[in-house]
Amino acid sequence: xxxxxxxxxxxxxxxxxxxxxxxxxxxxxxxxxxxxxxxxxxxxxxxxxxxxxxxxxxxxxxxxxxxxxxxxxxxxxxxxxxxxxxxxxxxxxxxxxxxxxxxxxxxxxxxxxxxxxxxxxxxxxxxxxxxxxxxxxxxxxxxxxxxxxxxxxxxxxxxxxxxxxxxxxxxxxxxxxxxxxxxxxxxxxxxxxxxxxxxxxxxxxxxxxxxxxxxxxxxxxx
Length: 222
Prior knowledge:
This protein is of the alpha+beta class and 222 residues long. The protein is 41% helix and 18% strand. The chain has eight helices and eight strands. It has helices spanning 4-20, 28-35, 39-51, 67-89, 99-105, 111-120, 167-175, 210-213, and strands at residues 55-58, 62-65, 146-147, 156-162, 183-190, 195-200, 205-209, 216-220. The strands form two sheets. It has a six-stranded antiparallel sheet with strand order 3-8-4-5-6-7. Strands 1-2 form a two-stranded antiparallel ribbon. Strand 6 (195-200) and strand 7 (205-209) form a beta hairpin. Helix 1 crosses helix 2 (28-35) and helix 1 (4-20) crosses helix 4. The protein is globular and about 55 Å long. The N and C termini lie far apart (44 Å). The model has no long low-confidence stretch (mean pLDDT 93).
């Protein structure tokens, strides 16, 4: 089993590659900043990961995951997201307080316990924030999601994923019932004022600025 440090680096490289599109190369400065370490520390670790075949590293260019590294990243994400769902669904924790707990548990949980958690939860495909849970075979489902601020008046959509998972933003969303699974209709899209208003299918409404709406990903109803 890889060390927690190795898993954290692999998971962060995966996240940065995901942000810039599949197959992208991550700059060492970006990697170091995201992990809160110096560029020298990040480079030393990446060189070690290259020796173990987890990454492909090109000096002064950057790093990207190898096939081995990607498999490990998806396994760590599977652990993290299943643990988050377990903490919410079984232990009753709030979705804004589970990330740090999952960060610790993802490195300690065994595969056998993880699969029991998966079965207990009914083999879920998304975590509490709407992030896809990789399958046991290491497959991440592709989903056609768009930011809420790109929707137009009259669009009926389902909230599917929350991109910004900072505690304060999650608390704001929960207080306004803007959680994954909620079906809504866009009633106002004012590009001049930067305001978007929505109605819930089962009643109620709320308004928000475009910056907040941009962090909510939705699936357009058929």
